[in-house]
Design brief:
By secondary structure, this protein is an all-alpha fold. The chain contains three helices and no strands.
């Protein structure tokens, strides 16, 4: 998965998080809980997963950049 894919995914996740009124922390926890359910990631659980780390970083940046007014 490249950075463009991660940015697209982060954008969708953040848009939905804003729509639901979720805080950034809740979004990060949801991403982590969901990530471990993906079969392709299960064999990587014992080592830090760079893709997940990058996705979380991009989500945090995107979440605060695209924050709705109010």
């Amino acid at each position: 998965m490249d950075d463009e894919d991660l940015r697209r995914l982060a954008g969708l996740a953040c848009k939905e998080a804003h729509r639901r009124g979720m805080r950034a922390e809740e979004l990060v926890l949801l991403l982590k809980r969901t990530w471990v359910t993906i079969p392709e990631t299960r064999d990587r659980q014992s080592t830090p997963n760079k893709v997940l780390e990058r996705l979380i970083s991009i989500c945090i940046e995107h979440y605060y950049r695209e924050r709705p007014p109010g």
